[in-house]
Amino acid sequence: MTPQDRHALLLAHTSLRRPDIVPEVELHLVDDIVALWKVTGEDDPPPFWAVAWLGGQALARYVLDHPEQVRGRRVLDLGSGSGLVAIAATLAGAAHVLAADIDPFCSTAIEVNARANGVDVEVTLEDLLEREPPAVDVVLAGDVWYEQSMAERATAWLVRSPASVLLGDPGRTYLPRDGWVELAAYDVPTTRDLEGVESKRVRVFSPAPR
Ligand SMILES: C[S@@+](CC[C@H](N)C(=O)[O-])C[C@H]1O[C@@H](n2cnc3c(N)ncnc32)[C@H](O)[C@@H]1O
Questions:
Q1: Is the CB of 33 within 6 Å of ligand 1?
Q2: Least buried of 38, 61, 67, 77, by fewest C-beta within 10 Å?
C-alpha cells in the first residue's frame, strides 16, 4: 500500500474527534477497530493509530496539565499510534517532539493528526528499541505494555534511558508491577467493545528512584 493509499483510507474510515479526557487535541479516530482492521488487512497489525488508547489519553492529559515536564525540552513519544501524546507534548511547549512507531500507518496518522492540530511532529518508523536511546530529555510512552515481547524490550530500554521517563498505563498485563512511582490517576471513559468495561482507572508513572 502506498502512502497515498494509506492517507485515502484513513480519511475514508475515520472522523475527527476529541478524546474524552483530552479535548484540546483532535484526532482521526474510528469507533469499530475490528471492522477497520478487516479493511486494512488482518495479516497486518491492528489499526492502533485509529484509537486514542487509555494509557495515551492519561499521559496526554498529564503532560497538558504539567507543561513544565516538557516545556522547552526534546521529547520522544515511544509507540505513538495516532500521535496523541506527541501532539499533546507539542501543545504543552516541547522544543522538539519525535514520534516513534514501527507501523507505517501510524506515520500517516501522526502526520495528518499533527496537521489537524496545527503542530509539527517529527516521525520515525525506525525501531528505536534496537539501539541506544536517542538524545532526548524526556521519553513518553502511552499504553505500550499490552504485548509481552514489546513490553519487555520497552521496559529494559527505558531503564537504560538517561532521559526523564513518563508512562501512561491502564493496568495492562505486561507492565512490571514494581519499579514505578504513581504521579496521577484518571478515570477514562471507554467502551465495552474495546476494553470490556465502560471506564478504567488509568495511571501515569515515572520510574522509582534507583
Ligand atoms: C496500544 S498502541 C498505543 C498508541 C498511543 N501511544 C496511544 O496511547 O494512543 C501501541 C503502539 O505501539 C507501537 N509499537 C509496537 N512496537 C513498537 C516499537 N518497537 N517501537 C515503537 N512503537 C511500537 C504499535 O505500532 C502501536 O501503535
A1: no
A2: 38
